[in-house]
């Protein structure tokens, strides 16, 4: 039994558990996740990537989040995450189940959101949800309707208008301690760029490759810094960036430059015109969307990839 548990723990450190395996024995997974979280107290690293593990997150974000909530002040144990699909794989589900946080999730799929009530665990937690396609016109009202203030964590994962929605959000009441933002690694680490705003943006419609979406890390860093937040790192997979309120920085959670924090994604999710996986990697991913129009968020001028 001990050897079996060790093997399971080893498989959780990194990105190796497929979704079906995770759903087979949820109780055991949560127990192992709790062990991994508690083991963080024995570590002395200041590198958030050393704390990565995954239970319900797509990559190692469950571990990063556990590390951050241990080392910065959280006024209210409340999260908001949007772009969660059916919430089976998400960055706040382990936080809810392991730490008993309350939260609100949103997704554009009514079917996905309705499926939450059919989950065996739904009744055990304080989780509310809404099926809605988020845009600049409705985001602040949606957040205001929660009644939340001074929350612990806000996670934006829209695969499209992420920069524009972030820029639009009034954080004065919500005041999250931590913000997690998905960035498009294919856009690189040098240019502060985003896809142009389109209220009905869908990445597959924007370009068949599914590679033209969202914003670069420099663009998101620019937007968050204006709102009083500091970049403290990215996950090893190179898709999620972590920002913390400047007033909460300490010797265990420190500011990093874009150059220091940036991780280049290596997962191969690109598509062919028939929507089959094309498995492009490296610079080939940028080449296929080269010439498409983006917006420089500092100059507000149109540029070409």
What does this structure look like?
The protein has 13 helices and 10 strands. The protein is an alpha/beta fold and 305 residues long.
Beta strand %: 15-25%
How many runs of DSSP E, i.e. beta strands?
10
Biggest sheet descriptor: 7 strands, mixed
Order of helices and strands: HHHHEHEHEHEHHEEHHEEHHEE
What is the CATH architecture annotation?
A: 3-Layer(aba) Sandwich
Which regions are unreliable across 5 or more consecutive residues at pLDDT < 50? 15-23
Return the structural class: alpha/beta
Shape: globular
CATH class: Alpha Beta
Summary tags:
about 300 residues; about 30% helix; 13 helices; alpha/beta; Rossmann fold
Summarize the structure.
The protein is of the alpha/beta class and 305 residues long.
């Amino acid at each position: 039994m001990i050897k079996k548990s060790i093997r399971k723990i080893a498989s959780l450190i990194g990105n190796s558990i497929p979704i079906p395996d995770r759903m087979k024995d949820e109780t055991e997974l949560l127990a192992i996740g709790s062990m991994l979280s508690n083991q963080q107290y024995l570590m002395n690293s200041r590198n958030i990537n050393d704390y990565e593990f995954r239970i319900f997150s797509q990559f190692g974000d469950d571990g990063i989040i556990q590390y951050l909530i241990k080392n910065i002040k959280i006024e209210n144990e409340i999260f908001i995450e949007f772009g969660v699909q059916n919430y089976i794989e998400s960055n706040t589900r382990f936080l809810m189940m392991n730490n008993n946080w309350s939260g609100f999730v949103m997704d554009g799929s009514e079917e996905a959101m309705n499926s939450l009530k059919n989950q065996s665990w739904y009744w055990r937690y304080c989780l509310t949800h809404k099926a809605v396609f988020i845009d600049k016109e409705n985001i602040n009202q949606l957040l205001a309707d929660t009644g939340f203030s001074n929350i612990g964590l806000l996670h934006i994962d829209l695969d499209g208008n992420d920069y524009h929605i972030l820029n639009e959000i009034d954080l004065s009441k919500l005041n999250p301690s931590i913000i997690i933002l998905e960035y498009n690694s294919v856009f690189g680490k040098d240019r502060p760029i985003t896809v142009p705003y389109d209220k009905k943006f869908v990445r597959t419609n924007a370009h068949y490759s599914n590679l033209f979406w969202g914003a670069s890390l420099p663009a998101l860093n620019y937007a968050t810094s204006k709102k009083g937040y500091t970049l403290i790192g990215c996950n090893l997979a190179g898709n999620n960036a972590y920002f913390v309120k400047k007033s909460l920085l300490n010797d265990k959670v420190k500011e990093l430059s874009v150059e220091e924090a940036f991780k280049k994604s290596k997962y191969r999710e690109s598509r062919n015109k028939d929507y089959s996986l094309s498995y492009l990697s490296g610079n080939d991913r940028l080449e296929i969307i080269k010439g498409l129009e983006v917006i420089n968020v500092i100059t507000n001028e149109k540029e070409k990839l």
